Amino acid sequence: MQIFPAGGLSKRPDLTDNQSGSPGFNRTPIEFQFAPFFGVKLICLISAKMSKKLNSSVGGTPKNTLFNYFSKSPAVDKKKLTPCAAIEAQKENLQNGTDKDTKNNLKPNAKRKLSVSPAVAKEDKKKIEVDEDEQDEQISGRKRKRIIAPESESEDEYESQSEPDFSEDGSEYEPDNKEQAASEESESGEEEVDEHSESDSEDNPTPKKSLKKFNKNYNNNNNDKEPATKKPKLESKTHVLATGGSFMEKLQQLQSNAKQDGNYDEIATNTNNLDEPVVWPHHKLDFLQPDKIKDKAGRRPDHPNYDKSTLHVPEKFLNSLSPGVRQWWILKSDNYDCVLFFKVGKFYELYHGDADVGVNELGFTYMRGEFAHSGFPEISYDKMSSILIDRGYKVARVEQTETPDMMTERCKRIKPTKFDKVVAREICQITDRGTQVYGSQCAIGPNHQPNYMLAIVEQDVGSCSKYGVCFIDTSIGDFHVGEFDDDKSCSRLLTLLSHHMPVLLLHEKSTLSSRTHPILRTVLGGILKEQLPSDGAQVCSAEKTLKLLAERYYAAGEDNWPLVLRSMQSDVDHLGLTPAEPYKLALKALGQCIYYIGKCKLEPKVLPMARYQLYVPPDQLDDVPSALLNTVRRSHMVLDATTLSNLRIIGPEHTLLSTLDHCCTKFGKRLLHHWLCAPSCDVEVIRERQAAIGELIQRSEDLQQLRALFAPLPDFERHLAQIHLFGNKHIKQMDHPDARAILFEEKLYNKQKLRNFMSILKGFETLMKLPKMLQHCKSKLLQRLSQLTDSGGSFPDLSEQLHFFENAFDHEAADKTGVVAPQLGMDADYDEAQQHIADVDLRLKDYLKEQERHFGCRVVYFGSDKKRYQLEVPEAHAHKANKAYALEGQVRGKKPARRYTTLETKALLKEMQQAEDVRNEVLKDLARRLFEKFSKHYAQWHQCVDCVAHIDVLAALAEYARQQLVSCVPELVAANGQPFIELEEGYHPCVDPSTYIPNGLLLGTDAEAPLSLLTGPNMGGKSTLMRQLGLLSIMVQIGAHIPATSCRLSIVDRIFTRLGAQDDILAGHSTFLVELSETSLILKHATAHSLVLLDELGRGTATYDGTAIAASVVNFLAELKCRTLFSTHYHNLIDFFHMDKRITLGHMACMVENEDNTDPTQETVTFLYKYTAGACPKSYGFNAAKLAGMPQDIIKRAYELSKQVEAIALQRKLTAKIVAAAVDRSANQQKLLSTVKDLLLQLQLCHV
């Protein structure tokens, strides 16, 4: 039996701080062992909580807190303290000893095992011991623990592993005698603060403070500043066994004390019943208060140059902190707008305000202690960061970039201060919605939409603006750079935003005009915005951008610049450092993107794989005189922001994109989005697509096999960018922190990297079946997309590359170990290192043979690692060893032997170690070089993906057409004369055809004018017909088969829409102003080849004004002779244009019952939803009022007033006609008299 002196404790070796592997706060069962001393004096039994105090105090820092510079617990507003009544009653009963049932039900905090005689132990075993399983279950039920969200099988492995110490913070601390005495005195003191998690005991960024200060803090825990997360504790007592009485009496007292400890724990750990807000120490820091907060330069938020991304932390405060705490605050002061994922061992920890974010957004619980603290394991980084990023947060990943040994070596090389004695930590990446890069810790998600970062530079040129733009997708490395002039409505900028909606906007402070700011408040109101400095050294410019690119990526003067960037350089400067005048704003915008991704530590990850594309607004025609615009054909149809919105072309639900999107691949979905935003105007391209889709429909089995082949393919575009990142040597060359980061799950990440890589290889191997699968296709487009270059196609032959990577390394071993085991010939450096090792090994074998001849017996090598290659010689022959042999050891027993080393073996050992070091270095970099070699063929991989994307879109359109009840191949005519549309029985593509009435339409033919003035009853289907015509025109020009009986048309270069009625309050635009702005755009940019859809122009102003404006617009469009549908309820327009041959009249047919009844509520209108020639006499507004449920009295009164107004108008017309007939003495007089009779009849009907 082990005996301890008074106060001595030992933790049971079979129990750890956390048996489950969870980083929670379990109370450790303590086994007390004691024996009666002479004089029958028992040891003072100390509670388990006090034992933790002793364990954490003697020789180390208290483990309850990471930031133990806070001396007091979070304050509680006593006015808001409303503890649960049941808990208060329980507390009172426990103190008074009256609630026996409650006391009996409460379990002790820790198992207490008494070492007594075997007989007594056997007799009272059930009374003394608490079952371990039951106790563990009880403890786990009331502990607070970290949130661990298992994502893979690796997390189970992770939880059972012990965490190595990478901190060394405070490792030099040793308690002096006074501190030792103070810790012993605390055994019978006040309440002990709970122990921190296992991770903090192993890796704590806070150096251990002096124990005196801790004891001072500890004694203050019983004051008014007690944490709000704890219940009022029971009256503290010192558990001392009575010196007299029988042994069983003393035993009962021990049990009573244990129960009382359990009662306390039930109260102290029940934190879910308090409703009061917790006031943490960071809530009380003076420099964080809203009225005193400043940025790092000392500027207040009302200062024009205030930088919200930094924080002023007083130097005095920093110097008062321990090294680990200071390290966190310095990083936070530079990245105040980020949530710091601060690496401590195997965990990412969140402190202070960041911990609040973790609790509120991620569902964490606060760690026990006096400061806000939460966290999660490294393996869950991807999941946790994705949640915060999707909710608009910026996440900074802080990694440990050295081990304790590296820290020690660093401190030896310098004269360290106390702040140097902490492992280095650096920010490796800052991620938000616009800077997502799929590194080793991140998996490529299911979302296929690009996340664009957009930089805007504006130059105000009077009433208009000139914009330089750069928008990039960091996940695939696409850079779009451009510069354009815009109108006062910023229509080109709005079109850019509708085609490529960003998730992050960059712009300089106070540089955007009053025209652009409303767009930021409305269209871009829901995205992240970053304001960049507008003055100082950090301001971007075109010259700085070119200089940076030349210094880091493109050697100045060499012809290795991308074509797009070369076109933006001045022809005068052969070094390429001077921007061309038309692209200064574009290059400045590119510089802003580079500056921001550099700030986010992404520059060496993104720029090396950048692919630059020139952005040109879809409606911009360079170097074309305005007089010739009507004769110039565009390559793509223009769809501006208004049209995309009004026709619901793109979007997640009930849009043309969602209807046609039967794509199986994510890169196919992105290509379909591009086709819909920019339909082709090239007749040959459209006809090729139509033929390919038609053949796929006919070959339905091949179509389904094709879709089955594509369905399991990963997102190749993003995986290619990820592999390029893994093989990027710039990360190490540019001294990026990620090159030094210590990842504890690196083995798992390496496995995942190689598994993804092998899945990509298998995917490309699968795609090599495509040429054979489609070899019998007759469509020129399908042949070009699917056949190899040798057969006249553009599909690349990847067999050679795939064969190389298939045999380059052992795939099965790589999948199991996460290490590339290269085959011979795969890597020259590795082959050279292996050859050197083989040479040394051969020389060792030759030397061993020489020694066997020398000793005349069998000699073997013995030893491992640094003591390898010792010559083991049998004792009987050892006498032949001379002075050249150094004795290293002897073997006794049945086969005695002696072991020697010689100068030759030492030299060979050293050479072997050097060769192995070279091989290991090569192996470390081998996976990177493997990925780099894969990326060297990027053009071929991407060409394959591009071909597959086109085939996938064609297959999706074929699948859509195959599902339709009616489908036709539109006939495109290169109209040299009047543009036209002939549509027969067409369906709206986004509506269920079984419930839709088809409609036909003729515009611009020999029999019909290009402009149709459309009337009809309210809710008769006018707007639906207009949208149907617009959507079918788009489908025609992406090459799709459309749901119609037949269709013939000439190319549409642009679709204009003015549909619906809505205001723009945030931009300060009324409904009428919005209508006129959209109409103004039409009048300025429409050509004879455009399609114009105008719905009820003129609402929102006086009837006469609206009618006059509408008539003027109709006259302009009729003169332009563009295809137009103009719907209106102004029936005066019919009178104006019913004889105009430039205009045809049409209406949506309906049937009316009880039309002549004086009671309008009895009138019944049946909508036929068919487009019919001629005008509709009325709009039947009272029918709409009845359908809306308006009171019948209101409808009747409105009908009477309507007749009165109509009578007044008829009287005016009648007077005018009578005067005209009286003056006119010609043959036209009879016609005028006939008109007068008709007017008299109408006037008679107006009497109600």
Uncertain spans: 1-242, 262-275
C-alpha geometry = elongated
Here the CATH topology of the domain at 971-1190 equals Rossmann fold
CATH superfamily of the domain at 971-1190: P-loop containing nucleotide triphosphate hydrolases
Strand order of the largest sheet: 12-22-23-24-20-25-26
Biggest beta sheet summary = 7 strands, mixed
Strand percentage: 5-15%
For the record, the CATH architecture of the domain at 971-1190 stands as 3-Layer(aba) Sandwich
**What percentage of residues falls in helices of 4 or more residues?**
40-55%
Helix count from the secondary structure assignment = 45
Tell me the span between the first and last alpha carbons. Answer: 116 Å
Overall strand count: 26
Tell me the Rg in angstroms. 41 Å
If you average the pLDDT, what whole number results?
Answer: 78
Judged by helices, strands and strand pairing, the structural class is alpha/beta
Could you name the CATH class of the domain at 971-1190? Alpha Beta
Structural notes for this entry:
The protein has 1248 residues and is of the alpha/beta class. It is 41% helix and 13% strand. Among the domains are: 281-431, DNA repair protein MutS, domain I (MutS, DNA mismatch repair protein, domain I, 3-Layer(aba) Sandwich), CATH 3.40.1170; 452-620 and 630-637, Nucleotidyltransferase, domain 5; 971-1190, P-loop containing nucleotide triphosphate hydrolases (Rossmann fold, 3-Layer(aba) Sandwich); 1196-1247. The protein has 45 helices and 26 strands. The strands form five sheets. The protein has a seven-stranded mixed sheet with strand order 12-22-23-24-20-25-26, with helices on both faces. A six-stranded mixed sheet has the order 10-9-6-7-8-11, with helices on both faces. A hairpin with a 4-residue loop joins strand 7 (464-473) and strand 8 (478-486).
